[in-house]
From TrEMBL:
Residues 247-567 form the Gamma tubulin complex component protein N-terminal domain. This is Gamma-tubulin complex component 3-like protein. One of its GO terms (cellular component) is microtubule. Its main location: cytoplasm. The lineage of its organism: Eukaryota, Metazoa, Chordata, Craniata, Vertebrata. It comes from Takifugu flavidus (sansaifugu). Belongs to the TUBGCP family. Keywords: Cytoplasm, Cytoskeleton, Microtubule. It comes from the Eukaryota. It is found in: Cytoplasm, Cytoskeleton, Microtubule organizing center, Centrosome.
Length: 926
């Protein structure tokens, strides 16, 4: 269809004549010639063209009639009209309206309907002007604004469509042709001697013949009664868009199909009325409204046709959005079962939507078949569509929002996205989302039931929040094979529930694959009713804190309890844990002491000369000779000897270590990392135990040699130095041993044992065991933060070994000298008994020389001990400073015990400063 501006004025005028008379082009030749003569007349107004004065006069007339709202509305409409370029002769239109309003034959009452102002006249012949035909008595003119508002709504200009009288008013040909409309009106008025408004135009329905209209004008379609009685024909006239056509287009748009007048704009991504109809609709809307006001009629301005259709066409856009998502995802197998369930729920909603559209199409078809009017109570109109489609529009908006929010999501993450939209106060929207959630969560509930009751995980598309790694071997099943996909945990599941679900299935698989327990899962925990349908899933989700939580808890407690019973009964988990404490953490005191006694001859040798089979034999001897022999054979056969990597200069003490072999299910608790921690702690404790053992030997040597060396008074000072230094070392080692044994090992072990007794699942035992190892590692100064403290402590241990060597050397020299002196005295006494001289001068001189040489070595020994004592004390002082500045409160208390008499504090200024600062902090905290 060509646009209006592409046609010549003559063609447009001829089309107007054909439309008004309802005849063909050949039959309206005479009327067309008369219309050309009238439009081509040279009549012109004799008054000044002032648009502002005319508009002000119209407003004053409205104010006189106490129609202030109409005056304001007219002013607003006139202002909008001034901004439009469609109408070129606004003054002519306003003047025409003012002249029509001043018609002397108009009744004194208010005029209600603008259609009553069109005359019923028809030309008797082609050469006469239209005559004024008296209005039928049955044509009512009192249709008020209140009645019109009640029929079509009370929203004023923005809420009424332009479809009140069989579509928009046809555009006047003279305006389209660029001719001034007042010329034609003046010619008609001059010829007939009547007011302009009496002969403005006439209207005939398309199904009425011209002859019937001339013979009986009162039988034509009345245009003045109330809207409920107006008969609007659905057939669209040429150049005019009827409401019926728009309704039909809108019903197509609802399904995402372009209509004849309303099409999808790819540029704006929305449905719009086709641009070729916009000029006609806009122009006729303004002209009709201005004519109504010019006649003094009280009418509510209608909302634009474009806005009304746009509001309805939004459903088509929403439908397309949802349909596009479902069409794209339904064929995507990687979207998974949860995604397919989501698409199925969207299809269900679209199916209900299509069912509604089918009802509307049926209603439209019935109206077309029966010729029903558009303004009857049962007719299908745009306004009624706005009301009837309100709820479907809300549902489609919810679905479209879900589609946007669920883009790129799958599995449990998709279920979380749907669940988040259910947190709303709108009960209908909440019910819709809950229904969709029941469908979406149905596969997840099925995954969950198969996992917690059978231990099976068939998650092909990785939708479930439990993940499985098939490359992990059985020995790492508990730690690495199964894990949680946190992004896939539905938001309606708590993290505690997800953890329990993971543990249930993991425990079942651990029993089957690692413990080789063939007990059916049904005997471990009673199988609950599965969620066979989405309805069952919906019932389950409606009580997440009740029935669902109970199912999870029952399965969790039963499965975990059974697993722990199997580990303790068949694999002696708790006994192995106690064996670690007794042997690797030196808790079996008699065994450790006897083992040291047996190993001492071997361990003092260079590390390269040791043989593991010799050490293993000594270990078995120590076991048979102590209470360790009463332990379970399963535990004793795992106890073994291990030699560490040998470094140059190492002795047997540096490379010896006990070992404990673990395999099978207990290796899940005692992992390689745990065993490496045990070895580190054992080496530290073994070294500390060796220091205790060494100081014991030092003390024994001092006690045994004290009486023997009384005969050598020159050694008293050196021996006193040895006793003092040994006492310092014994005090230090005793305090360290007390701290390690009681404050670290015993306290940590007590916490571990209590946690193990209260453990509800294997994870609790593993976590408690890891905390135990981390605690003793850090508090035994074996972590990275305590590296400087450990270095100082090892330096102290080295000084104790040096002191043992120095004291042994001193005692060897002293005992050797003592032996020579005793031998000299025995020889002298023996010769005296034989009656000879006890000694000769040479022997006496030789004896004195030897004694002098020995006495000359004593200052060297004293200096060596003094240097050793000074170095030892400086290391201890630095160690105490580090302890005082430690963040661990137990280490700070250890420094108090190590320097209880403030012996080192008196010699070290930094220690005094640290102690004062610590006391100051304590006082400030108080």
């Amino acid at each position: 269809m060509a646009t209006l501006d592409q046609k010549s004025p003559n063609v447009l005028l001829q089309s107007l004549c054909c439309r008004i008379t309802g005849k063909s082009e050949a039959e309206v030749a005479h009327q067309f010639q008369y219309a050309v003569r009238v439009i081509g007349s040279n009549y012109a107004p004799t008054i000044e063209r002032d648009e502002f004065l005319v508009s002000e006069k119209i407003k004053k007339e409205l104010m006189k009639q106490r129609r202030e709202p109409d005056a304001a509305l007219f002013s607003e409409l006139h202002r909008k009209l001034q901004t439009q370029s469609v109408l070129k002769h606004r003054w002519s239109v306003l003047y025409l309206l003012l002249s029509l309003a001043e018609d002397p034959r108009k009744p004194s009452g208010r005029v209600g309907n603008y259609a009553a102002l069109f005359s019923q006249a028809l030309p008797r012949d082609a050469h006469s002007t239209p005559f004024y035909c008296t209005r039928p008595q049955s044509l009512a003119l009192g249709y008020s604004e209140r009645t019109l508002s009640a029929s079509l709504g009370t929203s004023g200009i923005s809420s009424l469509g332009v479809y009140t009288l069989n579509g928009p008013t046809p555009t006047p040909q003279s305006l389209l042709a660029g001719q001034p409309p007042q010329s034609a009106a003046a010619a008609v008025a001059t010829a007939a001697g009547q007011p302009l408004g009496s002969r403005l135009a006439w209207t005939l329905p398309t199904n009425c013949s011209p002859s019937s209209a001339v013979a009986a004008p009162t039988t034509r379609l009345p245009l003045g009664p109330s809207l409920a009685s107006i008969k609007v024909v659905r057939a669209r006239r040429e150049g005019e868009v009827s409401e019926a056509a728009l309704v039909r287009d809108i019903l197509y748009v609802f399904q995402g199909i372009d209509g004849k007048f309303i099409k999808l704009s790819a540029q704006d991504n929305c449905y719009k009325i086709d641009s070729k109809w916009m000029f006609f609709v806009t122009y006729t809307r303004f002209v009709s409204a201005l004519v109504m006001y010019g006649l003094g009629q009280q009418v509510v301005l209608c909302k634009s046709l474009r806005d009304t259709c746009s509001r309805l066409a939004e459903l088509g856009w929403l439908h397309n959005k949802v349909r596009k998502y479902t069409d794209a995802r339904s064929l995507d197998r990687a979207f998974g079962l949860v995604g397919q369930s989501f698409c199925a729920s969207l299809h269900q909603e679209l199916k209900e939507y299509y069912r509604l559209l089918s009802v509307l199409h049926s209603q439209l078809q019935v109206e077309d078949d029966q010729g029903m009017n558009m303004c009857t109570e049962s007719s299908l109109t745009l306004r009624r569509l706005l009301v009837w489609m309100y709820d479907p529009k809300v549902r489609l908006k919810t679905l479209a929002a879900l589609v946007d929010f669920c883009q790129g999501r799958k599995g449990g993450e998709l279920a979380s996205a749907v669940h988040s939209y259910g947190k709303t106060g709108d009960p209908q929207m909440r019910a819709l989302v809950q229904h969709i959630l029941s469908l979406v969560s149905h596969p997840i509930i099925n995954f969950l039931y198969r996992w917690i009751y059978d231990g099976e995980l068939e998650d092909t598309y990785h939708e479930f929040f439990v993940a499985s790694d098939p490359n992990v071997k059985a020995d790492r099943l508990w730690h690495d094979k199964y894990s949680l996909r946190k992004s896939m945990i539905p938001s309606f599941f708590t993290m505690d529930q997800a953890r329990k679900v993971l543990l249930i299935g993991k425990s079942i698989n651990f029993l089957h694959q690692v413990c080789h327990d063939r007990t059916p899962p049904g005997k471990i925990t009673p199988v609950s009713k599965s969620a066979d349908t989405p309805k069952d899933a919906a019932e389950l989700l409606s009580d997440l804190e009740g029935a669902f939580q109970e199912k999870i808890d029952v399965a969790y407690f039963d499965t975990s309890k059974y697993l722990l019973d199997v580990l303790n009964r068949n694999y002696l988990l708790l006994e192995h844990l106690q064996a670690m404490r007794r042997y690797l953490l030196l808790g079996q005191g008699d065994f450790i002491r006897h083992l040291m006694d047996l190993l001492k001859p071997e361990l003092v040798r260079p590390a390269t000369t040791l043989y593991q089979h010799n050490l293993t034999g000594i270990l078995e001897t120590a076991v048979r000779a102590t209470n360790a022999q009463f332990d379970n054979a399963e535990i004793l056969k795992r106890l073994d000897v291990r030699l560490l990597e040998v470094s140059p200069g190492d002795t047997g003490w540096d490379v010896f270590s006990l070992d404990y072999h673990v395999d099978g299910p207990i290796a899940t608790v005692f992992t390689r990392e745990c065993m490496s921690h045990y070895l580190r702690v054992f080496n530290f404790l073994w070294r500390a135990k060796r220091m205790e053992y060494t100081l014991t030997d030092i003390w024994k040597g001092q006690m045994c040699n004290a009486k023997l060396l009384k005969t050598m008074p020159e050694l008293s000072g050196v021996l006193h130095q040895c006793h003092v230094l040994a006492a310092e070392m014994v005090h230090f080692i005793h305090q360290m041993q007390y701290y390690i044994t009681f404050e670290v090992l015993e306290c940590s072990w007590d916490e571990l044992w209590n946690k193990v007794q209260r453990a509800q699942d294997l994870d609790h035992i593993i976590a408690a065991h890891d905390v135990f190892l981390d605690s003793i590692i850090s508090r035994c100064l074996l972590d990275n933060n305590s590296r400087s403290l450990l270095n100082q402590l090892r330096a102290i241990f080295d000084q104790i070994i040096e002191f043992q060597s120095a004291q042994d050397s001193l005692y060897r020299s002293a005992l050797e000298e003592l032996s020579l002196r005793l031998q000299y005295e025995r020889g002298k006494q023996q010769r005296e008994e034989e009656g000879q001289w006890g000694v000769t001068a040479e022997q006496e001189a030789e004896e004195k020389k030897r004694i002098q040489e020995f006495q000359d070595t004593i200052p060297k020994m004293r200096s060596q001990l003094r240097i050793l004592a000074h170095l030892y004390q400086s290391i201890v002082q630095h160690f105490l400073v580090l302890l005082m500045t430690s963040s661990d409160e137990s280490l700070r208390f250890l420094s108090f015990r190590l320097d209880f008499t403030e012996h080192y504090r008196a010699r070290e200024p930094r220690l005094r400063a640290s102690l004062g600062a610590t006391r100051g902090r304590r006082l400030s905290n108080i």
